[in-house]
Amino acid sequence: MALLKLELDTQEIIDNFFDDTKLLGIVTSVKDYRFCWNLNNMLGINFRINHDIEIAMKRKRRQYFFSVYEYHEPNSALCHYLYNNLHDGEFLLPEFKNLDFLWLMKDDIVTDAYLNQLIAMLRNIPGVQLVTELTNEKIKNKEYLIF
Fold it and tell me: CB count, 10 Å around CB of 28?
């Protein structure tokens, strides 16, 4: 008797997670805790590490943990997530080895004006070398960002 193998189609989950999202890639010479401190103080926001949504991954027979910082805008549904793209020599998104952080905005509309203002402010933070918008088409491993 042959066993039926069922496969979970995650594409709809991935598509729903990334509906109406904006994603920035950031290059900085600053460690994650210092970078968040700079963001919080210079932009007037309140990123906090959220261990409940930390991304755990097993690669090369080792376990890696990628921290995720979270900030909910007051009086808005907009939520910001800052992913650390590097842990112990391994990358969360291997296709973006040059990026240190990924900043995801979701659950509300992000206008081009808002995004451009945020990018301009980020570029003025000490240690930030590059800020670029990433389109969903450029991300090969979107499922790694889902918590």
Answer: 20
